[in-house]
Design goal:
The structure is a single chain. The protein is α/β, with parallel strands linked by helices and 839 residues long. The chain has three domains: 17-78 and 95-128, no CATH class; 87-93 and 130-384 and 438-483, Glycogen Phosphorylase B (Rossmann fold); 495-812, Glycogen Phosphorylase B (Rossmann fold, 3-Layer(aba) Sandwich). It contains 34 helices and 24 strands. The strands form six sheets. Strands 7-10-11-4-1-12-13-17-18 form a nine-stranded mixed β-sheet, with helices on both faces. A six-stranded parallel β-sheet has the order 21-20-19-22-23-24, with helices on both faces. It has a three-stranded antiparallel β-sheet with strand order 14-16-15. Helix 2 crosses helix 3 and helix 2 (25-39) packs across helix 5 (106-115). The protein is globular and about 95 Å long. The chain binds N-[(cyclohexylcarbonyl)carbamoyl]-beta-D-glucopyranosylamine (F58). Residues 134-137, 140, 288-290, 375-376, 381, 453, 484, 676-680, 698 line the site of N-[(cyclohexylcarbonyl)carbamoyl]-beta-D-glucopyranosylamine (F58).
Length: 839
């Protein structure tokens, strides 16, 4: 409407000069040179790989922004229901290669860069990861954004723009040391600062009660500490579509700059104190994976993020001037774990306190809006906040939580009169001293759907942490499963170009990138000689690439013809890297006892580890030390003639994963049954033709169902046996598994250095009741490893398995997962982007 009012001459200028960011090679080269000279203030004489990266990134960014604008315009005009994905973590990794692929610029930019004197590979390698996440949960959010964009959904992500991402890991004397990840050191071309989009977020203060003009009792929160939230937008382009969605990351900034009067009085530190406290809020990502930290700053982060995001969502909704009752028809909000649960309370506060909606109507709107994904049943990961802390920081929210709880428990009491135990178990408030707010309970009560992330996990949450909710809500009402997925664009096409090319050549087109079920078409080539040859060649070249990377990062030289056995993920007791390294010791000492002739028949192995331990997680850090101590001994023992090598690759992150995963022959996903909610790297490995050695846990089970018995090595006790086994460790004298005892003896004998260092680790098995049941699974683990060795000797058989693995992985595309969420939980429809003229 506004445009129509402009004079013709103005429109003509836009028509003439706008939109010259076309996708051809020449236009790209022109952009590149313009960015070198203007954005970077450099010239042909002083442009290195890094500047070439920056110039390329800025040229791609221009094109991204164009699509981003078109998408936002289309969505605003369509005014259809949107989904908002609230996640404290988005583990995006690098963006350039992905943007080139998704925008269809790869060939033209590749050639363009080459003619300008650079190799695209080197250029891509300059980018630092956006590592705003810990592990699976954060990476899942990134895969889901890719699929939302690709499937044309009108979606937004909301998160925090941490100044420091997950720490960088280095090794010193075999120990992990942490270094800050100051990823914004150079400018970040993948964000659009929206310095005009600012939300004031308040903390602390008090609540006033008053009577409004209708005679209703109302409450008003007077926060006393105001921090500004500034938006930084990260465009996420879909693959093969114009849709380019947005992740809005909030950065904290002081409302007032420093206190000049104090400054003038000479109190310099006090003068800038407020400013520093405000900036602290989004300074750093908490580096814990599957562990709750009860720090006030973390709670502040959560509210800061939730308040800014809801303000933004509500502002957008209000533009349409619809009545509040339509809110859930326009807005779906997905809570990625309990971290954003305060959003439930904040929306209720906005509706009741600020907009004057009656409590019950507001609550109906709230519960129809939110849905909640649970990612863990580990007790130490459950979020609980002390009531006094919440009360102090967010006094009005605490009142609302008490009211939500009261009304909820009144309903429970009606349905189950006099069942006080049930009330206590269901309560959002844990009646301890001090009291705690159970965030998972708040999330369940405030959402219309609750989902687990794999079938087993979704069943387990109904039997454990949410058992009592099932008694109240009934079995099929709120609770659902949505098995996780991964994006095949990044995790096959980008990470494994050779295999991707083979698949495209074989299937005749790239449609499989948008419909992963089409990989099934590979099955008819499983006996095709030429196809098999190329399949093996792709794997081998990935192994060579990894071999070089291992040499570069660790100095360890490994043979790319050996079996590559990989375990890369966060280091955690429940993931049992400890069991893996104990198995390595067993293998090593078995090899040592063999004669040279016996050893000649043995499959050579390279055992590869990678992963970060939370900085305060002592036992996990000891596991890293043990791995490195074992590696030191094994790798330098000539008597075993290269039959075994061990490498711990430092600083595992998304980009490193892209190198490691395509190179694996077997990967280990060996969590204690019932502890790994899903796992997603398991999917990535199998999609890339790597086999799995795994426990009957998380998504391993569904992968097994899809790829069949012949193509996976499963072992260990089952989830339903775990309680009994733990009980036995606690109350009965369970004799130690003899093979494990032998390994413990080896460590204690000092074979891998001063054994006193490892005593606390060994104690978890012997004195600590072996909570993760390593001793119970050890023998079947060794047996499964034997089967792996045998199977690998049959080269042709292994190739067949590898092909069938990939071919059957269609289910695990994040596109499938997102489609299920869209249909069953969010009730949203795709909105294809209409290409606009630049005006
Ligand atoms: C992971 N959780 C699960 N949490 O462990 C994994 O099984 C699952 O596949 C994945 O989510 C995706 O569903 C996870 O990564 C965290 O890192 C949290 C970070 C914030 C603090 C609490 C743990």
């Amino acid at each position: 409407k506004e445009i129509a009012k402009l004079p013709k001459e103005t429109l003509a200028l836009w028509e003439k000069y706008g939109g010259d960011e076309t996708d051809d090679k020449e236009a790209f080269q022109k952009s590149f040179i313009r960015h070198v000279t203007t954005t970077l203030a450099r010239s042909i004489y002083n442009i290195d790989n890094f500047s070439a990266y920056q110039a390329t990134a800025h040229s791609v960014r221009d094109r991204l922004i164009k699509r981003w604008n078109e998408t936002q315009q289309t969505h605003t005009e369509a005014d259809s229901k949107r989904v908002y994905y609230l996640s404290l973590e988005f583990l995006l990794g690098r963006s350039l290669d992905n943007a080139l692929l998704n925008l269809g610029l790869k060939d033209n930019c590749g050639e363009g860069v080459k003619e300008l004197g650079f190799a695209m590979e080197d250029v891509l390698d300059q980018e630092v990861d956006a590592a705003l996440g810990n592990g699976g949960l954060g990476r899942l959010a990134a895969c889901y954004m890719d699929s939302l964009a690709t499937l044309d959904y009108p979606a937004w992500g909301y998160g925090l723009r941490y100044t420091y991402g997950i720490f960088q890991q280095r090794l010193k004397d075999g120990y992990q040391v942490e270094f800050p990840d100051y990823w914004l050191n150079f400018d970040n071309p993948w964000e659009l600062p929206r310095l005009d989009v600012v939300v004031d977020v308040k903390f602390y203060g008090s609540v006033n009660r008053y009577t409004d003009e209708k005679g209703r009792k109302r409450y008003a929160w007077e926060g006393i500490d105001t921090v500004q939230s500034v938006a930084y937008d990260v465009p996420i382009p879909g693959y093969g579509t114009k849709n380019c969605i947005n992740i809005r990351l909030w950065s904290s900034k002081p409302k007032r700059q420093f206190d000049l009067s104090r400054f003038n009085e000479g109190q310099y530190e006090q003068a800038v104190q407020e400013q520093m406290q405000a900036e602290n809020i989004t300074a750093v990502l908490y580096p814990n994976d599957n562990h709750m930290v009860g720090k006030e700053l973390r709670l502040k982060q959560q509210y800061f993020w939730v308040a800014a995001s809801l303000f933004d969502i509500v502002r957008r909704f209000k533009k349409s001037q619809r009545p509040w009752s339509h809110f859930p028809d326009q807005v779906a909000i997905q809570l990625n774990d309990t971290h954003p649960s305060l959003a439930i309370v904040e929306l209720q506060r906005i509706l009741v306190d600020l907009e004057g909606v009656d409590w019950d109507d507001a609550w109906e709107i709230v519960t129809r809006t939110f849905a909640f994904t649970n990612h863990t049943i580990l007790p130490e990961a459950m979020e609980r906040w002390p009531v006094p802390m919440v009360q102090y920081l967010l006094p009005r929210h605490m009142q609302i939580i008490f009211d939500i709880n009261l009304f909820f428990l009144q309903k429970v009491e009606k349905a189950f009169p006099d069942n006080r135990d049930l009330l206590a178990r269901l309560s959002i408030i844990e009646e301890s001293t001090p009291q705690f707010v159970r965030m998972a309970h708040l999330a369940v009560v405030g959402s219309h759907r609750v989902n687990g992330v794999a079938e087993l996990h979704s069943e387990l949450i109904k039997k454990t942490i949410f058992k009592d909710f099932i008694q109240y809500y009934g079995n099929d009402s709120k609770f659902e499963n949505k098995t996780n997925g991964i994006t095949p664009r990044r995790w096959l096409h980008q990470a494994n170009p050779k295999l991707s090319e083979l698949i495209t050549d074989t299937l005749g087109n790239k449609n499989w990138l948008k419909n992963l079920d089409l990989l099934k078409g590979l099955k008819s080539y499983v006996d095709n000689k030429d196809f098999r040859k190329r399949w093996v060649a792709a794997k081998h070249s990935n192994k060579v690439r990894l071999t070089e990377y291992i040499k570069k990062t660790t100095g360890i030289i490994v043979n790319s013809n050996a079996l590559f056995d990989v375990q890369v993920k966060r280091i955690h007791e429940y993931k049992r890297q400890f069991m893996n390294i104990l198995g390595v010791i067993h293998r090593y000492n078995t090899l040592k006892k063999m004669t040279s002739e016996e050893r000649a028949d043995v499959v050579h192995r390279v055992v590869i580890f990678g992963g970060k331990a939370a900085p305060g997680y002592y036992i996990a850090k000891l596991v890293i030390k043990l791995i490195n101590s074992v590696a030191e001994v094994v790798n330098n023992d000539n008597s075993i003639e290269d039959s075994l090598k061990v490498a711990f690759i430092p600083d595992y992150n998304v980009s490193v994963a892209e190198i490691i995963i395509p190179a694996s022959d077997i990967s280990q996903h060996i969590s204690t049954a019932g502890t790994e909610a899903s796992g997603t790297s398991n999917m990535k490995f199998v999609l890339n033709g790597g086999l799995i050695l795994g426990t009957v846990d998380g998504a391993n089970i569904e992968i097994h169902e899809e790829i069949g018995d012949d193509n996976i090595f499963m072992f260990g006790n089952l989830a339903h046996q775990v309680d009994d086994l733990r009980h036995a460790h606690r109350y009965r004298n369970v004799p130690m598994d003899p093979s494990l005892q032998a390994v413990i003896n080896d460590i204690e004998s000092g074979q891998f250095g001063d054994s006193r260092i490892f005593a606390p680790l060994i104690n978890t098995l012997t004195l600590g009741q072996d909570y993760y049941l390593i001793s119970d699974d050890f023998q079947s683990y060794l047996d499964a490893q034997k089967l792996v060795d045998e199977a690998y000797k049959d080269k042709e058989g292994w190739i067949t398995k590898s092909i069938l693995c990939s071919a059957n992985m269609g289910k695990f595309s994040s596109d499938r997962a997102i489609q299920e969420y869209a249909e069953r939980i969010w009730n949203i429809e795709p909105v294809p982007v209409v290409t606009k003229k630049h005006i």
